[in-house]
TrEMBL record:
Entry superkingdom: Bacteria
Ranges for domain GGDEF: 384-517
Native organism: Deinococcus radiophilus
PROSITE patterns membership: GGDEF
UniProt-listed InterPro entries: DGC-Regulatory_Protein, GGDEF_dom, Nucleotide_cyclase, Rev_trsase/Diguanyl_cyclase, TPR-like_helical_dom_sf, TPR_rpt
Pfam family, one: TPR_12
Protein name as it appears in the record: GGDEF domain-containing protein
Amino acid sequence: MLGDPERARKEMLEVLEQAREMGTLAQEIDALLKLASCDFLQGRYEHLMVLSEEGLQKSRAAYLTQLEAMSLNMLGLGAQRLGHLEQAMRYLLDCLRLGQQLMNEEAITVALGNMATVYSTLGHHEMALRLTEQSLEISQKIAFVPFTANMLANLAQAHFDLGNHEQALGMAKEAIGFAHNNAMSRFECYARVTLTDTLLALGRAQAACRVSQSGLRVARWAMDAEGESLLYWGIGKAKLALGELDKAQEYLQVSLDFAVQAKSPTQELDVQETRLALAAAQGDAALATQIGERITKLKDQLYSSDVQQVVQSLTAQLHQQLNPGTTAAILPWDAELMELTRTLKRANMSLAHRAAHEPLTGALNRPHFQLRMQKQLDSLQPGDLLGVIVCSLDHMKTINELFGQSVGDALLVSAVHRLRETLRSGDLVGRLGSDEFVIMLNFMAQEEDLEHVMHKVLHALRQPFEIRDQLIHITASLGGVVVPRDGQMVEALFKNAELTVQKVKAGGMEHRSFMPT
């Protein structure tokens, strides 16, 4: 089935029709879940959820607990691929509970392995590695070949995520060989992307490109949209590393198209983050801003729920329902559970921060700055005053050409740090574009405070920056507006402030501020 999911789909549809005609419920549910597996291999995650939910309801009604456990696993797998991490954890923990009650090692290994994928998505790579190793051990013990292929690929990825490049290299090669020999295209694609990333990390971009290119035929043959997205993404990353920016753009766009076709937000997020790096390398600030906004929306979609609370409460239920002796063999004991809970809490805080801030300077990204600004505007009382300043650093393109992109990036980071030191703790700093930042001054005492702060900012930015043993001098052009005097709508205020910056630059007033009247 894994080799040719489309042929398997046709066969399973015939089996399903026969089972329904004969009234053999167990066979019907089994066919539903095998159809869902075909959907997974072809990236049809929404349809997978529909089939698996039908299997779950029918298996529960008939007390077919083994099929119930496998339905829960498929639902967890589909929810994870669609980015619903809280829902995925709920399904997978229920699957693990049933697997342990039934002493069903197949259900246990798939639950552990797919839980590891959720932890990996959350950035908790050590736990992902631990659960993957445990799942792989069980699947090899029971000769569960499909999941062995899956876990070999995931184990390579876990080692890569932890920076264990030599282990990742060997494991990825083993996973590719195992998946290829057993005609499991999706898991071969997973392993090829990990091998591509590992080779890139080791500075072997040409070899990395060949690894992903050679896997395309397999993904196309299996009609695997997400698999093709993964491999085109790998080629795009390799081309970016080689400095072939036009080729990188072409391959990344194809990868993005396949990710959208597969309805996989996790894969789209990966591709979009690489496209953001490409836009920065091309100096396309407008495209970078557009991609950044899409990344923020995807992260909001993926990480908005507090997964830590769900893990804590559902695992506590597991401790109550399962036999302590069997639980200890599979789940962390209480002390480790407490540490896991704390780690997940930190991970969620980190993910929330990443969703709100742009990665280079740590300033708020534009969508979240606008959101915070709108909340402040909504809470304004009569007599309250806010200030908005747009700050454009001058001649950054020249600085990048003279000193290099890395020095320019370090300068931007230092400039944001200096802005924060100049402002009050309650004021906000956001990044609008490659060299343009925005400041919101909360609750000014009088309108004149805006100009006073603008002069402080200009003075702070005039002081030389020491970047890699070099003193660099910069200037800035500022434009400011007062709320409510100059508007009370976020976009209008941004527009007014940016127009004042353009007037400052057009008038050659580089070291001065300008405010509309």
